[in-house]
Design a protein that fits this description.
- The protein has helices spanning 25-34, 52-64, 82-101, 121-140, 158-167, 186-196, 226-235, 260-279, and strands spanning 2-6, 39-43, 68-74, 106-109, 144-148, 174-178, 200-205, 207-208, 215-216, 241-244.
- It is an alpha/beta fold.
- An eight-stranded parallel β-barrel has the order 1-2-3-4-5-6-7-10. The protein has a two-stranded antiparallel sheet with strand order 8-9.
- α3 packs parallel to α4 (121-140) and α6 runs parallel beside α7 (226-235).
- The two termini are 16 Å apart.
Length: 282
């Protein structure tokens, strides 16, 4: 098992419309190293506007800080047709090239940006074909494609997720990133995990308060009981990366000057909590 810090966690503009990073990712890396992290999942928008020199500079800084970019996370529009669809795939291909340059092992995507029930047959077929082509590109680079289980995507229900995996069954480098979104129901999250377990290669971790949806430390939220969920994932034999996606006290567009040291302290607490649960007795 390996714990990754997802760089979306440190970005105040993660939910802003244009998602433009407040600072270059390279400027954050020494702080991530000091916080004791060794591996990252890089948020697409931390690299999507870099030119060749900027990408080389980021790679140099990652090496200098002994930080390994295990995964890259992307959010493609898969259902688009015509010139819009072509443009979306060009942008996605560029992100694949960035991930390859950084020698990432996993390319994680939102499997589309439209709920599975809202796609007509043609839109779903286009989406599946775009994922198949993406998987092929990644296979040529010896990279794994993981599809995140998330609302408003092709993996927004267990049924749609399993259907998509069946449609992609010829692609041997496709798996799932398990994002537990059964809010307030740890039993349901465990049941969904078990149903998808043969395909899960990557897990996202975050917790919240049910009352207002605010993000908390993993051990303090009541969205899910992470002591139970993490122990169950451990006992299932999972040994892939666990990615810390969100934590308490993250900066937002409304609080861009929140103390960045606090969010990294909280991420480190989540890491240590995860390691504690993982090493405890079954």
């Amino acid at each position: 098992m390996q714990i990754l810090l997802n760089t979306i966690l440190i970005e105040p503009n993660r939910w802003a419309p244009d998602k433009t990073p407040q600072r270059p990712l390279s400027e954050h890396l020494p702080d991530l190293q000091r916080a004791g992290f060794h591996a990252l999942e890089i948020w697409q928008y931390h690299v999507s506007t870099l030119d060749a020199r900027g990408l080389t500079n980021l790679s140099t800084h990652l090496d200098a800080c002994a930080l390994k970019p295990i995964a890259m996370g992307a959010y493609p529009f898969l259902h688009l047709d015509g010139p819009e669809g072509d443009e979306a795939m060009v942008h996605l291909g560029r992100t694949v090239a960035y991930a390859a340059h950084l020698q990432s092992e996993i390319f994680k995507i939102f499997p589309g940006r439209v709920a599975s029930q809202q796609l007509d047959a043609a839109g779903r077929a286009r989406s599946v074909e775009h994922v198949r082509l993406l998987a092929q590109q990644l296979a040529e680079r010896s990279m794994l494609l993981t599809l995140e289980t998330h609302a408003n995507t092709l993996c927004d229900t267990e049924e749609s997720t399993l259907q998509l995996l069946d449609e992609l069954s010829p692609c041997e480098n496709v798996g799932l990133c398990f994002q537990p979104y059964t809010e307030g129901d740890t039993d349901a999250a465990i049941r969904m995990y078990d149903a998808l377990r043969p395909h899960i290669r990557h897990v996202h971790l975050q917790n919240r308060l049910r009352d207002d949806g605010s993000v908390t430390l993993l051990e303090e939220g009541d969205w899910l009981d992470y002591r139970r969920l993490l122990a169950h994932i451990r006992d299932s034999g999972f040994d892939g990366p666990l990615s810390l996606e969100f934590t308490a006290d993250m900066a937002t567009p409304n609080t861009p000057n929140a103390d960045p040291r606090r969010v990294l302290e909280n991420a480190a607490r989540d890491r240590d909590f995860t390691l504690e649960v993982w090493s405890s007795q079954s």
